[in-house]
Write a structure and sequence with these properties.
Structural class: alpha+beta
Length: 665
């Protein structure tokens, strides 16, 4: 990049940083907090308007040139990845430990330990600017070349370049990972068939080509970038999706395996098109050996797929931190160029692992993964990309078998019921913290907020309910913290089955989908009792409405109701007969969460006579209860009334010549 352009870009970054620092306190005020805060329902959110886990590996927006004593002049940084938290490193180490112990137990039992090669179906998505006429760039032949580079990097055929003076023929270890082109159906959806091919020229190869200026040039981790990936991505957690787009803003970006549970629709590797094998020839012309040696051999994709399989950088947390890999020597800072013998942690054994694909050395210098890195990749792949949990079928009202839910893990349950039923699911576990999501007809997708109910409180006790129109309800629990012996129970009931209210007691919290109705009943034994009902909502809306009627459900289609509240939150009726049952229906024209409904029945006492400037004796009123007072003022006089309460609050209504009617206003 020209110096003038880089200076302009650096000033742009500074301006953005200042704007963010100034604007956030103004927007958030005293309530400002990080996305990692916990408390009540203010849990860290997960995607599309939700805060990320910040576990993404992303390469630099306009990767800065790094100048150190060890680096080559003008070298580009491969990554600007936020360091994974100590908690994530600890969690990943536990996964590897469990995996190794499991393999040892299986070996002791004489079982096969699974050293067969893992073949990963791979889709390539080429994004080009509109009007692009270069059909040769990123064609099937170039994609095949890049695929071959990827496979060689993960095999024992990955060796040092024997044209370099220090190369003695060393080669990397066999990882037992292979990458093959996924094949698609020949239909409009291009669904994957499950088959693969070693050739990028196969007729049904999963290779897409899209012409879109915005998608081509947009920076990673933006709304447009998310839309691009959600639109084109194919397959499940075990399918590698690689996007090639403009390399102006980044080299590459990848998503860790632990993110799939909450970010499934964006799980992918993005790579700047100039950094694929041969891509530099298109950008800078053939013969630019300096660029080819640095980034022109295609090893950026090998590096990113290492992250996609769960690896950290070799220089993670410097000399005293490390990447939690026992056989990669400690490294204080990233390496650039190919500084043979570089040792930034002289107090630790071994020189810097500059030939490791997870360092920042130039492409010509990289050729190996270590044995422990390979173990870590297989452990992460087995748990998060191939060993992800199968859906568990539930019986109505019967709890699931206890299961341990690791952090970042997702378990989905299915309940079949009658169409139109209301399904309530609850979760519980031994300590930890799990979140509960429900969806009608399809599994919840947390990353896109594709669910009908969500409970994300602290702890493992959660409750959610929805109305199922399909008769198939999916409930997913997500491990925010590891939770042992987690169980889920789902119960279906007819939607018309009313909830019986106790006098003066609010219902449990409930949710309504658009055009859904909740039904309640209250036994009213006293003739002439006045019943006042109240709907509580965190977000009162004109979309909410409830209706009251004695002895049968209100019929809003024929206006057969005795009181109706739309937008207001109270409604009252008088029981003019004997013992009766009051029916109430609550509906919403849009989704409404965390509602609560209650009614209070009371028999008004006799009217109390008021005398000018003489206060009454103190009286007590229950929730929703009313008491009437009567005054006989002189004609054309002005009457002012005042009520004082010791505890609680209430309202006062005045009317000439007759008692105020609260139901009609």
């Amino acid at each position: 990049m020209p110096a003038s352009a880089r200076a302009h870009y650096d000033r742009f970054l500074l301006a953005v940083a200042l704007a963010v620092v100034v604007a956030l306190p103004r927007l958030a005020g005293a309530a400002f907090s990080t996305s990692h805060s916990r408390g009540g329902v203010n849990k860290k959110r997960y995607g599309n308007g939700r805060a990320k886990h910040h576990d993404w590996e992303h390469l630099g927006l306009k990767a800065p040139r790094v100048k150190t004593a060890e680096s080559t002049e003008g070298a580009w940084a491969r990554c600007s990845m936020p360091d994974p938290t100590a908690e994530k490193i600890r969690h990943d180490n536990e996964i590897v430990t469990e995996y190794v112990k499991s393999r040892r137990r299986r070996a002791q039992d004489g079982a096969e330990t699974g050293s067969d090669t893992v073949v990963i179906p791979t889709c390539f998505h080429v994004i080009r600017p509109e009007g692009d006429t270069d059909d040769e760039f990123l064609n099937a032949e170039m994609i095949q070349t890049q695929l071959d580079v990827l496979n060689r990097g993960f095999s024992s055929s990955s060796c040092c370049d024997d044209r370099i003076f220090w190369c003695n023929g060393e080669c990397g270890l066999e990882t037992n990972f292979r990458f093959a082109i996924a094949l698609t159906e020949q239909d409009d959806d291009f669904a994957l068939t499950g088959a693969v091919s070693e050739s990028a020229t196969s007729p049904n190869a999963c290779i897409t080509r899209t012409f879109n200026d915005e998608w081509y040039s947009v920076a990673p981790l933006t709304d447009e970038d998310t839309m691009m990936r959600e639109s084109l991505r194919r397959g499940d957690a075990g399918v590698l999706n690689v996007f090639f787009k403009s390399g102006e803003l980044f080299l590459g970006i990848a998503q860790f395996p632990t993110e799939y549970a909450t970010e499934s629709t964006t799980d992918a590797v993005l790579m700047g098109d100039r950094y694929i094998s041969g891509g530099g020839d298109r950008q800078y012309g053939e013969g630019d050996t300096n660029f080819d040696r640095q980034y022109g051999e295609g090893d950026t994709l090998v590096h990113e797929v290492g992250h996609w399989l769960g690896l950290f950088h070799t220089f993670q947390d410097g000399c005293e931190g490390g990447d939690s890999i026992g056989d990669t020597p400690a490294e204080k800072t990233s390496s650039f160029g190919c500084n043979v013998g570089r040792d930034t942690c002289p107090d630790h054994e071994g020189a810097d692992p500059i030939h490791n694909f997870m360092d920042y050395s130039d492409d010509f210098c990289l050729y190996e993964f270590t044995a422990n890195q390979i173990t870590r990749m297989h452990a992460q792949f087995n748990l998060y990309r191939s060993g992800f949990r199968q859906n568990i079928a539930l019986m109505d009202g019967v709890s699931s078998q206890p299961t341990d839910i690791r952090q970042y893990e997702l378990q989905t349950y299915i309940l079949n019921s009658s169409e139109g039923a209301r399904v309530e699911c609850t979760s519980n576990g031994d300590g930890g913290d799990i979140d509960l999501f429900m969806r009608d007809g399809e599994p919840p997708v947390i990353s896109t907020d594709s669910f009908d109910c969500a409970e994300e409180n602290d702890g493992s006790r959660e409750s959610c309910s929805i109305r199922t129109e399909t008769g198939v309800t999916y409930a997913s629990i997500y491990g925010y913290r590891r939770t042992d012996s987690a169980i889920v129970t789902c119960t279906a009931s007819a939607i018309d089955t009313p909830t019986v209210l106790a006098n003066g007691v609010f219902s449990e919290s409930f949710n309504l989908r658009a055009d859904e109705t909740a039904v309640f009943t209250l036994q009213v034994d006293d003739p002439d009792a006045r019943v006042v009902c109240l709907l509580e909502s965190n977000t009162p809306s004109e979309d909410l409405m409830f209706s009251l009627r004695f002895n049968q459900p209100p019929d809003t289609n024929t206006d057969d109701y005795e009181c109706q509240s739309s937008g207001e939150n109270t409604c009252s009726v008088v029981n003019e007969g004997g013992a009766s049952v009051l029916w109430a229906t609550v509906t919403s024209s849009s989704r409404a969460n965390n509602l609560s409904f209650g009614c209070y029945s009371s028999v008004p006492g006799p009217a109390i006579m008021l005398f000018p400037n003489v206060p009454t004796e103190p009286i007590s009123l229950g929730p929703f209860e009313a008491r009437t007072f009567v005054s006989l003022p002189a004609p054309k006089s002005v009457v002012t009334c005042q009520a004082t309460t010791g505890v609680g609050s209430g309202n006062m209504f005045l009317r000439w010549n007759s008692e105020p009617d609260l139901s009609s206003g």
